[in-house]
Structures are given as C-alpha cells and as structure tokens.
From TrEMBL:
Belongs to the major facilitator superfamily. Metabolite:H+ Symporter (MHS) family (TC 2.A.1.6) family. InterPro entries: MFS, MFS_dom, MFS_sugar_transport-like, MFS_trans_sf, Sugar_transporter_CS. It is a multi-pass membrane protein. This is Putative proline/betaine transporter. It is found in: Cell membrane. Keywords: Cell membrane, Membrane, Symport, Transmembrane, Transmembrane helix, Transport. Residues 24-437 form the Major facilitator superfamily (MFS) profile domain. GO terms for molecular function: symporter activity. It comes from the Bacteria. One of its GO terms (cellular component) is plasma membrane. The keyword Ribonucleoprotein does not apply. It comes from Microbacterium maritypicum (Microbacterium liquefaciens). PROSITE patterns: MFS, SUGAR_TRANSPORT_1.
Amino acid sequence: MSGQSQAGFTPTGTIATAADRRRVVFATVVGTTVEWYDFFIYATAVGLVFGQLFFAPLGENSALIGFATVGVSFLFRPLGAFLAGHYGDKLGRKTVLMWTLILMGAATALIGLLPTYETIGIMAPVLLVLLRIIQGISAGGEWGGAVLMAVEHAPRRKRGIFGASPQIGVPLGLLLASGVMALMTVIAPGDQFLAWGWRVPFLLSVVLILVGYYVRRKVEESPVFTELAARKEKARMPIAQLFRKHLLLVIIAAFVFAGNNAVGYMTTGGYIQGYATNPEGPIGLERGPVLWAVAGSAVTWLLTTLLAGWLSDRIGRRTTYVIGWVLQLVGVFTLFPLVNTGEIGLLFAGLAILTIGLGFTYGPQAALYAELFPASIRFSGVSISYAIGAIAGGAFAPTIATAIVSATGSTQAVTWYLAGMTVLGLIATLLLRDRSGIPLGPDHEEEQSVSPIYGLAKA
C-alpha cells in the first residue's frame, strides 16, 4: 500500500493513529517556530540596532550593509539544502531536523554574546556575518524536512492542512521574535535596549532549542522514508538524479516561492521595521508600537496560512495559489500608501492586508512541493527548490528596497518591484499541473516522475 489512505494506514501497512498525527503536527509547529524565531530575530535586530552597534563605523551606508547581511545567509541556504537533501533522502527526515535545530540555536545564542564594533572593531561584523551564515545553512535544511514529516504522515485528502503546520512556523516565529523584541523595548527602554536589551531575545534561543529538541525526539520517522529504507530503495545520489531529470521543475517551483518570499521579507527581513522607525526617515515612529504592529500582522498571516492549507484540500493547490496571487497583489499596492501615513493603526492595516495574500501563497506550498517530486529524491527536490526560491525572492529584497528608496526618495518603485515578483510567482504557478492527492509512496515512483509542467510528458 502506498501513500496514506483515508483509513490511516502508512505505506508500510501500519496504522497511523490520530495521536501519532497530532504529535507530528505539534512537533513540526514547535520546531519550525523555534527555527524561524532564531532566523527572524536577526533581521528584526538589523532594522533596529545592528546598524548602530556593528556597522555604523563602516560609513553612511551602514543600514544598507546591515540588510545585506540578512541576504548573505540566503546564499548559503542552498548548501544547507544540498546537505539536508542528500542526507535526508539517505538517513531520514528526522535525523536532519534534529541537527538543523541545534545548529540554528547555537548560532543565535552566540550572536547574543558577541562584542560590538566599539569593543573588538572589525571582527564584530565579521563574526556576526559568520554566525548569520550558519543560520542560513540551518534554514536551508530545516524546511524540507519539516514539510515532509508533516505531509508524508498526512491522510491523502488532508495534506494541505497538515502541510500548513510547518508553514505557520514562519508567522509564529515572526510573532514571537517581534513580541519578545517589543517587550524588551519596555523592559530596557532607550539606551538600555542598545546596551543589553537586544541580547536577551537571542539568548532566549537556548531555552527554545531545548524545548524543540525534546518535542522532535518523540516523533516517528516519515512513513515514506521508512518504506524506502526497508526496501533499500533510497537513491544513491539523490541530488544528481534531481538535476539530471527534474532541473526545469526545480526552477519553476523556485519561482513559485520567490514570488511569495520577496514580498514576505518586507517584514520578516526587517525592512518595514527599519523604515518605519528610522529617526532620519519620513515616518520616525517608536520601536515598540511598530514591533507590536508587526506581531499583530503575524497573527493574520498565521490564520490565512491555515485557511489556505485547508482550502487547497478542497479546491486544489493551483486554484488556491491563483487566488493568493491576486490577493497578494492587492496587498502590495496598499502597503506603502498606508505605512507612509505615519499612523500606527494604518501601518498595521497595511501589513494585515498584505499578510492575507502571503498566507494564501504560503499555506499550500508544503503540499504542492511534496506532490511535485518522486519519493526517492523528494527531500532534495523540495529543499533545493525552496533554497533557490529564497535567494531569488527574499534574500536581498530588504537591500533592494533600501537602495531603491535611497536612490529615488520614494517607495513607489519598491511597490512595482514587489508587484513584479508577485506576477512572476503567478506565471510559475500557471505552468504547473495540480497534483493534489497523488500517491506519495515508493510504489508510485513512475507516476510521480511524470512531469507536472504543462507541455512536458516526462521529467
């Protein structure tokens, strides 16, 4: 028996109970939330304090340099994706997830202990970038494993909502990162926040990693991988097979994510936070209210992500995505007109409207990606597509936005840049057939290997 039936059987013939599935969902949500909290706390700090503490002595473009370090980590996501994909398809999804969690947490905690430029000079930003690179490697490996643990455990007709569980780790991580930072602006206001308050959220990562590690240890390996291992059908060189047979699919899938990621990184990359709180900028709002507004928008993002995952099980991944791209385009064109009013309530409204489209173009992604690739190379396929999409989309979106505003003095061109990325995501989506419900187990490799790209019979 392949895939997972509605009766709850795994590919190996054992019964996946409701309790087993709840445990997988809970572990996936907790683990990805911790991972993305660690990843986003850096971007939030770049927009608020790192420019002053680590990059200010480097010149008047310190803000631009700071946001560039957010993007640097994305360049190393493919390395994490390659490593995780290779070992995830050979050793299992669970093993890789444990290591990505530890790696991310260690890097984040060490950032919280770093001396600033004033103390150790140029070594401060150098060490900061090195730790950010480690975060990038970990993030590149995390997503694919979390996605497959959720989707490969799911009943066939509930893959969308199960797959949304790792997806909500992003808005939950943003909510947690923004909320903790906002709380620290109250506990350590003004100069105290610059002196030590910003460090606390990074050091808190140690506790969160311990929690995430404990929860993930309790979860069983993915049933699809378990059957592949039992049959000794694991791919010997999964990445080589992926690029030889499915290169075009990887590129198109990457563009699907890039359309979402470029827009999402206006907040997760720290751009809106830095733009709205810059005392020399056109708005000059206080840190605390802006962080609370971002945290509030993370809630709407979470809810729409879950809704989109659920809806994709009913109307298909492709249709849900198309609706999402239209909603995201609306959000893109309303974002800066509302943010630029300088009213905190309207800033929140702009972010909340934007996150509706973001949720609809993110919630179905886990199920969509898992259904695109054959079982034996699936971890490699979803991880590498995701990593490439992150580079093409969010890696330097805050840097690009900063450079555009610096050059033009206006956010209008930023809006058109984000609109263009949204349209790119829509085009990539329309190139793919909907494969909702396709069997995921190794018995159906031949069916899974038929290209989902319109116009191609075989991958």
